[in-house]
Amino acid sequence: MRRREFLKNLAFASFMLKMPGWLQAQTPSWPDIAWVEGEDPATITRKAIELLGGMKRFISRGDKVVIKPNIGWDRTPELAACTNPEVVRALVEMCLEAGAKEVIVTDNSTNAPQRCFPRSGIEAAAKAAGARVLLPNPYRLKKTAIKGVWLKEWEVFSDFLEADKLINVPIAKHHSLSRLTLGMKNWLGALGGARNQLHQRLDEAMVDLAAFFRPVLTVMDAYRILLRNGPQGGRLSDVRLQKMVVAGTDPVAVDSIATTFFDLKPEDLAYLPLAKERGLGEINFERLRLEKRKI
Amino acid sequence: MKKEKSKKYRFLQISRISSQLLFFALFLYLLFFTRFTGEDTIGRVEIFFHFDPLLGLTTALASRAIFAAFWLSLITAVLTLLLGRVFCGWVCPLGAIHQFFSFLFKKSRLHKPRKLGQSGLNLKYLLLLIVLIMAIFAVDLVGYLDPFSFLYRSFITSFLPWLTKINHELLSFVYQLHLARLGDYWNQFLATLAINATFQQGFLLSLLFLLALSLNLARERFWCRLLCPLGALLGLISRWNLLGLKINKEKCIDCHLCTLQCQTQANPYPQEDWSQRECVYCFTCASICPTAAIDFQLGWKAEPVPAINLSRRRLIFTSFLAAVATPFFKITPARRRSHPDLIRPPGALPEPLFLQKCVKCGECMKVCPTNALQPALSEAGPEGIWTPVLKPRIGYCEYYCSLCSQVCPTGAIKELTIEQKINVRIGTAWVDKSRCLPYVVGASCIVCEEHCPTSPKAIKLVRTETKRPDGSVKTPLAPVIDLDLCIGCGICENKCPVVDRPAIFVTSVGESRSETNRFLLELSL
To answer: Under an 8 A CB cutoff, do B455 and A234 touch?
Structure first.
C-alpha cells in the first residue's frame, strides 16, 4: 500500500517536473520560478506561491502533506541557521487552506531536537498554523532503497515516504564542504543513521537524495541568509538580510537561483551541474521562466 | 474497657499520608521540569535542596562560604525545633518512598515487625559526625548519604532511565502491533520529556538504590532509622521540641502494638522510653492504638529526655577517626595534575572548591540537553565520585545553554547567563592525525568543522598533503584547531564519524576555571 502510494507520488512528481511544456499547454502558463522580495517573510511566501498558481495547484483536498524545513541547529531565527518560522507558518496555512487533511512539519535535527524545535521558532509557528510538529521518531526509521548512483540504501523517516505531497523549505546558507547548503542538501534531514559519513562523498549523496525525494514544491527561504561560518553561523555579522523567497517546482532551478545571493554561479557548486546531468532540473537561467516581484 | 481507636489520629495519619503524597508529587513535578522547556532560564527546580539544613551546613563548613539560597533551611530547622522531625514524617520524599516500601513489605508479610529497643539507631549520629568533621577538614562527603542527594541521584541516573527503557520496550511492541498512531503520540510525549537515559555506572547506582529500598525488608524505614544523617541532625535539633507523647495509663492495655508498629523505632511504650529524637510524628501509634490511649500534646516538658546512647569515648573516637581519615582522600594524583578527562560543566568552580561544594545530586546531569554530563568514577579522585564530568562521546555542551549552572543547588557550578557561558572554556579539542580521515586517506570530511558552534569557527579547514596507501598524493581540506577560539564543547568529538575512538577529542587542558591546567601563556602567537 505504502509502496504503491509512494510510486504514485513519484509518478506524479516526475509528471509535474518533466513535462512542463505539455502541462502548460492546457493550464495558464505558470512560471518555473517565483522570486519575491519584500519586508515580511510570510507575505512574500504567500506571493511566491500565488505567482506559481496558488497552493491548490500542488495540494489536493485530503492530502497528507509533509513540510521539511531546516530545523538543524539550536539557533534563534535571527542567526539564520534554521528556516524562517514565518515562512513555515505561511506554508502550513496555505496547505490547510488548499484542503490538506494533515500537515506534518518535521526534521532530524543535528543538535538536540528538543532544543532546535522551540528555539528555531518553527515549533510554535507551525503548531499555531495547525500543523502536527513531530520530533524525529527513531521507530519511524525505515531502511529504504534510495537507488542512487552512489547511495543505494539508507534509513529514512517513513513520514517522508508515506506523505502524499512533500514540500521542501530550506534556508540558503554557507557550507564549507558543498560551499552552499540549499534545497538538495536539506534532504539529509530526512535521514537517520550515521549521516556524518555521507560527507565523504557529499555531492553525490545530495544528488542521489534529490533524485529520490521529489517535492511538489521547493520554497527557498532567503529572508536571512548565512554568508559565513555555515551551516550554523553564530554571529549576526554572519547574516545578511536578503528579504527574498524563491519558490518553484524544479528543485535544481531553485537552488541555482539561490547561488546568486552569494555571488556564485550554479556551476560553482559541484552538485548542481551533476544534478542537471542526471536530468533532475535546470541550472541555466535562460531556460527558466522567472517571475520576479518586489512588494 | 471500651475498645475504640482514635478518630482524630486516624485523620491526622491520613493527613500525613496526603502530605507525603503531595510533596512526592511536587518532587516529581520539579524533577520532570528539570529540562529545557524553551526558555534560556529555568525556575528554581532545585528548591527542595535548599530546605535541607544538613547540605547548607556541610557545604558552608567545607567551602568556608555560605550559599544564600540555603536560608530556606532555617525554616526546616525552626519547624524541627518546635515540632520535632515532622519534616521526616510529613515532607521528605525519600522518607515517603521508604515508608511506602516498608508498608508493601509489611502487608505482603515479607517483613515482620519485631521489638528492637534502641539498637543500631546510633549509627546515623556517627555518620553525621563523620560528615561534619570531614567537612571541617574541607572534604565534603555529605552527597553520598544526604537524602536529597541520594534521592535525586538515584532517580536521575537509575529510575528515570529505567522508566524510559521500559517505555521503549513497550513502544517497540506497540509498533510491532502496527499501532503506529498510538506509538507516534507516545514517542512524542517521551521525546518531549527529554529524559537522559544513558549513564555510566547506571547499573551500579541502580543497585545501590535497590539496596536502599530492600533494606526496608530488614527494618521498617531502615534508611531513616539508621543511616540518614539529615534525620540525625534534625533529631538533635528536636531535643527541646514542644510536641510530646502522652499515654493514658488507665486506657493502656500494655499490648505493645504501638512500639511494634512504630515506623522509626521511637518506642512509644512505655512513655518514659519514647524518644522524641526518633519520632517522625507519623501518628501510626496513636492511630492504631486499640484503646485510643496515645495522645500528642503541645507543651513544654520539664523532665529530661533520654540521652542518645553514645558514650563520650565513642564520640571522641569517631571524631578522631574522621579527622585522621581525611588525608586518605588526598593521596590521589587528581590533586597534583588535572585528569585529561575531567571536563567539568561550564561555570564549575576551580577544582578544590568545586569538590567542597558539589553534593553529587545529579541535577546538572538531568537538565543537560545532550546527556553529556555523567557521574565521574575515577577522574576526580575519591571525593569526586559521582560528581559531573562531560563525556563528549556521549553528549556535548550545547553552545547556547547554561541550564546546568542554573540548577546547581550549592553553587558548585556558578550560575551563568548565556553571554557569560559562551565565553567559558571547559577544555580544548585536539586532532588525532593518525585517525582523521583527511590526514589518513585524503578523504574529504568536514564534519567537525561543520558542527563547531563558535563564530568564527575554532576548527579551520586547511589544504593538506596526504600520502595515500598506494603512494599517490591527495590534497584534501583537513581540520586544524585554532586554540584561541576553541571552548572545548566537545561536539566535534561527539559527531566525528570515526566512531569508536574519535579522531578529534577534547581534554580538560585550557579550561577557564584553572590557573594551572594550561598549555600556553599567550595563546595568540
So the answer is: yes
